[in-house]
Design a protein that fits this description.
The complex is a heterodimer of chains A (172) and B (343).
Chain A: H1 7-57, H2 69-75, H3 79-91, E1 102-112, E2 117-124, E3 137-145, E4 161-171
Antiparallel strand pairs in A: 1-2, 1-4, 3-4
Chain B: H1 17-45, H2 47-64, H3 80-85, E1 100-102, H4 103-109, E2 112-113, E3 124-125, H5 128-135, E4 143-149, E5 156-159, E6 167-176, E7 180-185, E8 196-202, H6 203-206, E9 223-228, E10 234-236, E11 241-245, E12 253-256, E13 264-267, E14 279-281, E15 285-289, H7 293-296, E16 304-310, E17 321-323, E18 328-329, E19 334-342
Parallel strand pairs in B: 1-6, 2-3, 7-9, 8-17
Antiparallel strand pairs in B: 4-5, 4-19, 6-19, 7-18, 8-16, 9-15, 10-14, 11-12, 11-16, 13-15
The chains are: A alpha+beta (172), B alpha+beta (343).
């Protein structure tokens, strides 16, 4: 039968339950706060690596060179050498046998002379494109081109221009 | 009266004011303690993140900073005052050149000694100096820093074996190769007219190149003049002379290169240097100006000098040679990967 003789026990029970819930909430929230920061650090590392690779590819070997390797690759549509060089820079470690496993997709953003707006075309797409991951980063670099690459879309300006090379980079 | 009807209102189910106050104080204290406890947990669990951050910071100092002083690789670490003046270990060629390292700094950085008497050597003391001048922070971090040129298989390493869990940062860099090289073709004594020649160097022209990656940094890097086209027996009769022109022009002041390093060496065929003169030269003989020599004799970025080479044969034309960006070359920078591990 229901009566009021156990009220204090009931209140005690409810209080204890609340305490447990609050404690569990605080502990769980303290651990979940850490996870995004950890991921963020990883993102920074990947982004830094991609930026480093692009910067080094955009560094001429000699001051007498007319173009950097990166400019040459884009100007000549040489995606094969570009891919090899970029992956070599990104995947190499100080141990010859211990290579990282990064993949990337790159696009080139340019000024469309017909629509007067930004447009882009894919510069490199990996075979078996498998990007479904959250922890991908985008790195980019402005690249000066003296003229239009032969394989670029017809609406790209044919004269000197600056394009934005965008690389989506992720770890497999 | 006991046994009264339970549905009637009465005061038995109410809490006493003492209990409510006590319970409130307890709850506030408890929440406060729990809040503090979660803070402690954050501190404990953020250790990995901290390691990553320290590894990243260390890589940034190494790759994007030239160090303090910026030409620290020229310091004579056997002298205590020089060692003390080294404040920070950066490898970059300049503050505005992130990712572009200087080969001599790389060599000096990976020249370490863990023995007690390391302060009397040319080596950096491991691990103390690396912790004080690179890792920083009060926490006694351990570290492992490795660098490998992509065309080589063996890395340069400083630091011990690292545990499976550690902070990590990897950077891609290019290393400027020091030593502009000029090839000087001499002539057959039958056709030459001079036994002595001058190699002219205008430092203001050399330092006029803005990008430090391609600059002939003769004050801080070695400089090599290679003699080619040796077709007969030719001897260099004395140690090379350096003639320094005063800023306002006029007659230069000449001095012989000193006997101690840094100095100018004559290396027949690129081998061991001549210790006595006359010294016979062959194809590929190097006039090897050691790094720091020009600074040693007080030159700066605006100096004008001539290096005078005397032989016993008429192997030179009447015109002096010029050392500049048209006659000399610098090897291409070499790509490398740098890994920093901290735990």
């Amino acid at each position: 039968m229901v009566n009021d003789s156990g009220q204090l026990y009931t209140i005690e029970g409810i209080s204890a339950g609340l305490l447990m819930i609050v404690t569990a909430y605080l502990v769980v929230s303290s651990t979940t706060v850490l996870t995004p920061q950890d991921v963020h650090i990883t993102d920074v590392q990947l982004e830094q690596l991609g930026n480093d690779a692009l910067a080094m590819m955009d560094t001429r070997d000699s001051y007498e060179d007319e173009r950097s390797p990166l400019q040459e690759y884009i100007l000549n549509d040489d995606t094969t050498t570009f891919t090899q060089a970029f992956l070599l820079y990104c995947n190499s470690s100080t141990s010859v046998t211990d290579m990282d496993n990064l993949r990337f997709k790159s696009t080139i953003n340019y000024y469309n002379r017909i629509t007067k707006e930004q447009a882009n075309y894919t510069y490199h797409m990996p075979a078996g494109y498998d990007y479904y991951r959250e922890n991908a980063v985008i790195v980019n670099r402005w690249v000066y081109l003296e003229n239009k690459p032969p394989g670029a879309p017809p609406d790209m300006d044919s004269g000197p221009q600056i394009v934005l090379l965008e690389v989506l980079l992720w770890r497999v | 009266m006991k046994g009264k009807r339970s549905w009637l209102p009465d005061e038995e189910g109410q809490l006493s004011i003492d209990f409510i106050i006590g319970f409130t104080i307890f709850m506030i204290s408890f929440i406060f303690v729990i809040s503090m406890a979660s803070g402690l947990l954050v501190g404990l669990q953020s250790r990995t993140i901290d390691y990553d951050a320290v590894a990243y910071r260390t890589s940034v100092v190494l790759v994007e900073d030239p160090g303090e002083p910026r030409d620290w690789h020229l310091l004579d670490l056997t002298i205590p005052a020089d060692r003390d003046s080294l404040k920070r270990l950066g490898l970059s060629i300049s503050r505005l050149s992130p990712g572009l390292l200087q080969q001599q700094k790389v060599d000096a950085f990976f020249n370490w000694d863990s023995s007690a008497g390391c302060t009397g050597t040319e080596s950096l003391c491991y691990p103390d100096e690396y912790k004080e001048k690179l890792i920083f922070g009060d926490y006694p971090y351990s570290f492992n820093i490795a660098l490998r040129k992509l065309n080589e298989s063996t890395p340069l390493v400083v630091g011990g074996n690292y545990p499976p869990k550690h902070g990590y940062s990897r950077r891609v860099v290019k290393i400027k190769q020091p030593g502009a090289i000029m090839t000087m073709n001499i002539t057959n004594p039958l056709y030459g007219v001079m036994k002595t020649t001058n190699i002219s160097m205008e430092f203001s022209d050399l330092y006029g190149l803005i990008n430090p990656l391609y600059r002939f940094d003769t004050l801080n890097e070695r400089t090599i003049i290679t003699i080619q086209n040796v077709t007969s027996i030719v001897n260099i009769t004395s140690i090379p002379e350096v003639c320094v022109y005063p800023p306002e022009g006029g007659t230069p002041t000449c001095l012989y290169a000193p006997g101690s390093s840094p100095t100018i060496l004559v290396k027949p065929g690129g081998g061991p240097p001549c210790t006595a003169f006359p010294c016979q030269i062959v194809n590929g003989t190097e006039i090897y100006i050691e790094e720091g020599f020009f600074s040693r004799i007080g030159l700066d970025e605006f100096s004008t000098i001539e290096i005078r080479i005397a032989t016993d044969q008429n192997v030179f034309d009447a015109f002096p040679y010029d050392f500049n960006y048209y006659t000399a070359t610098l090897a291409a920078p070499e790509p490398a990967v740098l890994e920093v591990r901290v735990w």
